[in-house]
Structures are given as C-alpha cells and as structure tokens.
Amino acid sequence: MQRAAVFDVDGTLVDTNHLHVVTWWEAFRQAGHDVPMHAVHRAVGLGSADLIAHLLGDDRDTDRDAELSAAHKALYGQYMDRLPALPGAGELLRRLHHGGWTVVLATSASGAELGALRRAIDADDAITDTAGSEDVREGKPSPEPVQLALELAGAPASQAVFVGDTVWDMRAGSKAGVRCLGVLCGGIPRAALEEAGAEAVYADPADLLGRLEGSPLA
Description:
Blueprint: E1 3-7, H1 17-30, H2 37-43, H3 48-56, H4 65-77, H5 89-98, E2 101-106, H6 111-121, E3 127-131, H7 144-153, E4 160-164, H8 167-176, E5 179-183, H9 190-196, E6 200-202, H10 205-210
C-alpha cells in the first residue's frame, strides 16, 4: 500500500512567510488599508482570496480584490529568483522518497511562484506531484488540497502524514483524516499548531530529518 508524505511549501520547506507578510502589508497599504503585520502573518497560508477576505472582512469592496492580489504578486515577484530553502528541506524529501514514501506538495502557490519554490527546494527527483491552488476549488483550511494530494499519491488517509507550518495546514490535514506534523519555522507558536491538530512539532525540516526515526514518518 502506498504511503504519502504530503508537504506544505511556504514556511515549511522554503523560508518565505515573512516575505509574504511584508509584501501583503505593502499591497494593503498601497490600497489604503491599515492592516497590522501580525495579523497578516497569522493569515499567511490561506489562498489570496481567502486571505483578503479574512483580513478585510465581508463588507470590503470585493471589486478591488484582484487589484490587491496582483499588487502582492508583483511585490513578491521581486524575490522569486532568490527564495531560500529551509535547512534540510531537500534532504528530508529525498530521505522519505528513498524510504518508500510518495512525496506530494500541497500548496496555495501556482505557476511561476510554484516553479520558483521548487527550484529553491531543489529536490524534484523526490517529488512525485503537486496539488497547487489552480488544481482545487477551495484552499486550506479546506481539506481539498490534502485530499487531492492523497489522490495524486494513490494513498489512503490512514497511510499519510501531512507536514505544515500554519494552523490552516493543521486544520486541513485533520479534516482530511491524516496525521499532522507542525514545524515552527513559519513563525506560528507550538501551542497554536498543537491546538489546530499537530501530533508533534519540530523546529524545521532539518530537525524533523534528525529525529525521523522517532516520528510518524519513520
């Protein structure tokens, strides 16, 4: 039976969360919205439309959502040629792949951004497939991205582990019925990840790799 190791990307495998915070903050500022950076940080991990709705509320001018998303995309695009992988990211995926796990990414990124993230990880030989934002109707915390990743891996939820860095990841994985592992490198506190469903929490991919034998990915 296939075993699936499903990974979020931003903040989990690539050190991008704070870039997203700054560029979303600037996109909101340019549009005349005063949104605190700490609020943006807690919303990172949601898809663009859901992030805007979460931060601005239902009474916003939704006609400007596309403009906000485009501004963030342009600002973030300045960094896409130098996105840094988190310590141990590529090595962890390769270890799991060689250990018989089917590795699939479940991310709110797509297109050129997803390509830049995969280049940063530099482990395409270990990645079987990707469930990106263009492949699902609803992003996290909906379970749909994780469920699609399981379909792509050909693995049941009972034989899968999902690794992420946000409460949205943990909620999505829990709803999909998979075991969830959290990492702290996205900047979300351990207690918040555990409350949202993390079975165990690690500092970053390198920490998980170093303690792999005692983890659900053993």
